[in-house]
Amino acid sequence: MHIAIAGNMGSGKTTLTTMLSEHYGWIPRFEAVDNNPYLDDYYKDIARWSFNLEVFFLKQRFRDLLEIANSSETIIQDRSIFEGVYVFTANNKAMGNLSDRDFETYMGLFESMMAAVKHPDLMIYLRASVPHLVQNIQKRGREYEQAIPLDYLKNLNDRYEDFIFNKYKGRILVVDVDPLDFQHNPKDFASIIDKIDAQIFGLFP
User: Fold this and answer.
1) CATH at 65
2) Do residues 164 and 172 touch, judged by C-beta distance below 8 A?
3) Chain centroid, CA 45 distance in Å
4) Using an 8 Å Cβ cutoff, are 184 and 16 in contact?
5) Is 148 among the domain residues?
6) Number of domains composing the chain
7) Does a structural domain hold residue 205?
8) Nearest to 175 by CA among 160, 156, 190, 195
9) What is the mean pLDDT of the chain?
10) Domain limits for position 7
């Protein structure tokens, strides 16, 4: 079985992935972004290297999907190929960093890949407001995240909403995380567990 956790930066994806893997005994799979050989060049000349960067990420995420599909274990994945395409690459295109030609080539490659794999059995979308995201980003204190503009986070949030409710064709569980502190409050975590059990095991109405 394949479970994916989706959500904007600061929504709690990695924390929930870790907690659910421990609760259910699932195998966690985290995205490694630091091994992209185009990262340094990308930050020096974003428009020049965006296509290369995004194609490398696409290749890595597709490989992850193939490995997950061939595994006999239940795997819970922190961010999926679908977010990479419909949120982050689409945002790069909207910002003018990808040409129409490059974006069409990229989407054609993605669509060909999708013919070989299936959607996750369940995608859990952590829905959060921008103030909630900012609060969490400030708490975890990653230096490179502290200067992220609010407009950028809002734009990504809008793309997540469009992705989840208009573009994604698989099974979705939406969790509104603003009122929750599932990391520190057992009742909040239990409420998420109940929702997941209802989706994948049918234990609740």
Assistant:
1) 3.40.50.300
2) yes
3) 25
4) no
5) yes
6) 1
7) no
8) 195
9) 90
10) 2-200
Q: With a cut of 50, which residues of the chain have pLDDT below it?
A: 204-205
Q: How far is CA 105 from the centre of its chain?
A: 22
Active site residues: 78
Cα angle 168, 171, 175 (rounded to 5 degrees) comes to 90
Rounded-to-integer distance, Cα 8 and Cα 129, Å: 10
Q: What is the 3-state secondary structure (H, E, C) of 75-131?
A: EEEECCHHHHHHHHHHHHHHCCCCCHHHHHHHHHHHHHHHCCCCCCCEEEEEECCHH
pTM: 0.88
Query: What pLDDT score does 143 carry?
Result: 62
CA angle centred on 37, ends 33 and 43, rounded to 5°? 80
Residue 30 lies in a domain: yes
Tokens of 173: 């569980």
Residue at 132 is within a domain: yes
